[in-house]
Amino acid sequence: MAVRTARTFGETARFAVKRGWLRALAVAGLALLTASCQLLGDGATIGTVVPGTLRPNLANDIGAREHPRVVATYGGVYNDPGAERAVASVVGRLVAASDDPSQSYKITILNSPAINAFALPGGYLYVTRGLLALANDTSEVAAVLAHEMAHVTANHAIKRQQRAEAKELANRIVTDVVQDSEEARKAIVSSQLSFARFSQVQELEADAIGVKTLAKAGFDPYAASRFLKSMAAYARYQSAEKETPSAPDFLSSHPSTPERLQLVVRAARQIGAPGIGERDRDRYLGQINGMLYGDDPLEGFVRGRSFLHKALGIGFTVPKGYILENSPEAVLASNGDGTAIRFDGADISGYSNLVDYMNSGWINGLLPASVRDTTINGLPAVTGAAITQGWSFRIAVIRIGRTGYRFIFASRSPNEGFVHDFRETADSFKQLTPTERARLRSLRIKVVKSKPGDTPRKLAIGMSGVEPSRRLEFFTVLNDLPKDEAIPAGTSVKLVVD
Fold first, then answer.
1. Domain extents for the chain?
2. Integer distance in angstroms from the first to the last C-alpha of the chain?
3. Do residues 340 and 407 touch, judged by C-beta distance below 8 A?
4. In this structure, how many other beta carbons lie within 10 angstroms of the beta carbon of residue 5?
5. For the domain 301-438, what is the CATH code?
6. Which of 23, 160, 477, 495 has the lowest tally of Cβ within 10 angstroms?
7. What per-residue confidence (pLDDT) applies to 240?
8. CA 162 – CA 165 distance, rounded (Å)
9. Lowest-pLDDT range, 183-192, 223-232, 237-246, 333-342?
């Protein structure tokens, strides 16, 4: 989390309130541009190319223009010799086996804990260190890169742009011409479904091409299905939805995981039975041994339900049931009851008291009578409430020197639990002691060899950065191992330690 200025947060707060606490997941144009392979769906839109016309070097120009924005959005470039070797070791083989061996690629490891990989036109490929940490062998990394290369060789991003422009034109015509608003709505939804399915078809096409490229390069063609399962397991772990699958999003540009799994398994079976191709688990895990895991120290640390920032010397804890997520802009959290939390900081040196700051207009719908001066753990603070666009907000600002640290709770259905959670979280905010700050260290991947009698339950005890009750689940997801079976002696496994 980075401290933002009052002006920046003012803009963000107004946007959040007006749009119903929507979180911007990436820079506006960027999120629409990349042929992204996140766990969530995405779209794509590129420049102002006229459908059916591709000027020379368009793809390269787009990639070169957007590359700096990608790097900035995802925390910069992650430099680690082992991780770089792990990626570089597969690239040459995949290029030689791809549909276009003449295509050059520029591969960047991004300093982000997110599980993500995507491609830009012109051969710009990106993987996050979070994705590399989840992978368990060379073939799984190769499967991800082969899929992204397929997006490049198939010109998917350019095709999405052409289709997007056609959809936009059709929607504009429908809106302008059709007088019946319900009929217009149905027509637009139909257009959106068509466009979403077009993107899903692209993903499935890239999956199929990727599996063939993977096998042709000598890697295990079943690696794609293994990694899709690992991503799905990690998503369930992150959301704490153990056995409650979410409803399908019919407007998502990515097909569902079961659909993708069926395709990649079928494609692999057409090549051969399981057990063929190179995996190379030991070498891969040896290369990422010591790699940074989770949050970058400059952005603070999430430790279970607590956020701790060594440099700023602050920390707080959210109630049980909330999942914390750190980002460069803010710390976010949510629970299963529809409550969302945002925490960040701003320069408030221009205000002599916190009541004036709370009333300065940086958030819409503020109820003036709710603003109260108070103290939290000996620190000056102010609290208040706001209501707008069907949302209820609780706000707390705590001052340390020139900086105001801000909590915003939001819910469409506020109740006593909502108010209780707000107070509990705000009251947990504190300044860290010198000893607490000294004990805060980055999490790292530590690779060890299992010994006779080792089990996931036994090895999970040594994991850091996660609540004790969830260590076993975390260990099994990270290592793609069954929790109730003994681990064969000599197996390389990943631990997360500080």
1. 34-292, 301-438, 447-497
2. 20
3. no
4. 12
5. 3.40.1000.10
6. 23
7. 66
8. 5
9. 183-192
